[in-house]
Amino acid sequence: MSTLTGAARRHADLYLRPEQNAHYNWRLGIGVAAIVGLPIAFGVAVDERTVGVVASLAAWFVALAIPEAHPGLRLFVLGRRAAILTVAFAAGLLASPSVGLSVLGILVLGMLIPVPGMTITPLVTFVMGLNLAPGTETGSGTVAFGVGACWAVALMMVPFVGGRYAAERPPRGPRRPIVATVHGHVRSGSPEFRYAAQAAICCAVAYVVLKLLDWPHESWAIVGILTTLRPTWEATHARVVKRSVGMVGGAVLTAVMLAVVAQTSVWVGIVTIAVFGGLARPLRQFNYGYWPIFGTPVLLLLVSVTDHFHTIDAVYRLGNNLLGAAVTLAAVNLLWPHRVQHPRGGFRQERSA
Fold it and tell me: Reduced to 3 DSSP states, what percent helix, strand and coil does the chain have, rounded to the nearest 5?
């Protein structure tokens, strides 16, 4: 019993531990409320709900970036992110009728995670393109996503939202061509390359298996993998604990709000999306464990505008996230783990050296 109590206390401490350089930027929160809330409000007002949902999702994912201080660098990073995510989403729409193309896209985007400007977000938006609003035309869906992404870039460039500008540009590090960067990771078998390979393989296999099982909302399990798997064991363990615990609160809050919206009006849902989005976004830099509590209702309420989700879908969201976390833990222990990903490997020893 004392062992279980000690483990529970350690996990509680880990969940409550703030992020490094933790801060809560309320100005960014106000900006993100407008970034994610106004596109869906416009879509509902003009009776183009799918367009509004896609634009809001695009704006939401662009707004997850941490704004750079220098104006030119901020515009470059945000613009690059908007372009990459739009292409990834369009690729998801194109690949959605074919399981083979879907798996190929997952593998390619997974292996590109270490490339500068990529990370996991393009793969997340690709998976959303595979599953969002079946029958959505590639052209109109891509345009809606691109407009939403540009809207987010425009508001993030405002100093009140993205932060004050710095007069001097930070010094540039050594630049390497993308091909050389990828080749270096592959040749050295770096933690980043192994992490990308794990993400690509786990997501591709999980996608095929869950498709064959006709699993409800299988894309949420893929997102669960991507949001918990990290290049080191310490970071992975922290993400699994923080996201899994936070998702419990997020699922409960989502179930309540889905029931409320079903009994009231879609506009109640839109206001909730804006308010929760504004609360959630700054929490990523304060404590990632609190982020899913408000971030989960934002996504599910958004998609429910067209798919008419019910409270049971919040349970599926939680269950699929926990499934994704379980796959992550299996991956870092069984699938080609690097020493920094092994819970009893050299990572902790290297840190203490």
Answer: 75, 0, 25
- The distance between the two most distant Cα atoms of the chain, rounded to a whole number of Å, is 61
What phi, psi does 157 have (nearest 5°)? Answer: -75, -15
Q: How far apart are CA 147 and CA 68, in angstroms?
A: 22
Quick check: 242 pLDDT over 80? yes
Per residue in 104-144, pLDDT (tens digit) is: 999 999 999 988 888 999 999 999 999 876 667 889 999 99
Cβ–Cβ < 8 Å for 157, 75: yes
pTM equals: 0.91
Give CA–CA dist 105/98, Å, rounded: 11
What percentage of the chain carries pLDDT values higher than 70? 88
Sign of CA dihedral 66, 110, 135, 267: negative
Q: Which segment of 152-166, 209-223, 246-260, 299-313 scores lowest on mean pLDDT? A: 299-313
Half-sphere exposure of 224 (CA within 13 A, CB side): 28
Beta carbons within 8 Å of 137's beta carbon, 6+ residues apart: 93
| Residue 132 CB-density burial (10 A; 0-12 exposed, 13-18 middle, 19+ buried) | buried
**Residue 23 reports pLDDT greater than 60:** yes
How far is Cα 244 from Cα 258, in angstroms, rounded to an integer?
21
Contact 4, 268 (CB under 8 A): no
